[in-house]
Amino acid sequence: MPGEFDFIRRFLSHFPRARVPVGPGDDCAVLAPQRGALCVTTDAVVEDVHFTRAAFSPEDIGHKALAVNLSDLASMGATPRWFVCALALPKDFPPRELSGLARGMAALAREHRIALVGGNFTSARELSVTITATGELSRPPLTRAGARPGDLLYVSGTLGDARLGLAHLRSGLKRGPSVRRQRRPEPRVALGRLASRFASAAMDVSDGLAQDLGHLCAASRVRATLELASLPMTSTVRRLIGPEGALAGGEDYELLLAVPPGRSRAFERACARAQHVVTRIGALSEGKGWVARDMTGRVLPPPAGFDHFG
């Protein structure tokens, strides 16, 4: 039966050697930042919480584990540089599945030019993948606390797809665009870097727009008015779960952005040139919390988002 160091060699074989002073194989990685300040984030995907091995391939799991961390870097406007990966594996975990997990993670790492520089293996009852990722900033970071009254709210992509994909997986459907969004989210790294030239605040939409917008409002001490008719959704999401379902769904990994009105047209033009899809969904004002308005102007109470301990 393969041992710990066999697993390490197998996993590392799928990644290019990191160009850092000290990389995998020592007690610590040694990094050499080149541009500006560093952003550091950590997140985990855990079996039977974020995925099941029956519904997700090993490649899906590896991709998603890295993607959720890249999404955090994207929200700050950072350029991904390095990551470490801690794997907790069941004792009977097949080596071929470890290779699949590494392949899915390595493919996304190559796409975003982020290097694996270290990590850890341990045994556990269930599979979990914990990643700590680091990115470099060339501009001041986008945070949740920078928005001001008068700023306009934008969101990237479409909402609710991952929630619908999860429902499809639970019902036994294994394919379709929504299922792919659940299995393989696409971190908006390039959009985050572009937005850092225009936005006053940002965060990624991981726990549902309903909850994440509340976090941005609380951090910036502003009030948001959201226009439900403007929410970007596919026709399938609109038909099956509607705007309120899309608001409450987690794991979209889109970017929520506050942009000063004087920069909004330039931001929209820059996004169009770079082929980033963004939609204006509301505005900020003085006050606290947020409300949603339907097409008739009626104010609706906001739904709750995802809560890991709710």
Structure write-up:
The protein has 310 residues and is an alpha+beta fold. It folds into 2 domains: 4-19 and 33-136, 60s Ribosomal Protein L30, Chain: A (2-Layer Sandwich), CATH 3.30.1330; 152-300, Phosphoribosyl-aminoimidazole Synthetase, Chain A, domain 2, CATH 3.90.650. 35% of the residues lie in helices and 24% in strands. The chain has helices at 4-12, 58-76, 95-112, 161-170, 177-183, 189-195, 209-220, 235-240, 242-248, 261-274, and strands at residues 38-46, 79-89, 115-123, 128-136, 152-156, 201-205, 223-227, 254-259, 278-285, 289-293, 299-300. The chain has a 7-stranded mixed sheet, sandwiched between helices. The longest helix has 19 residues, at 58-76.
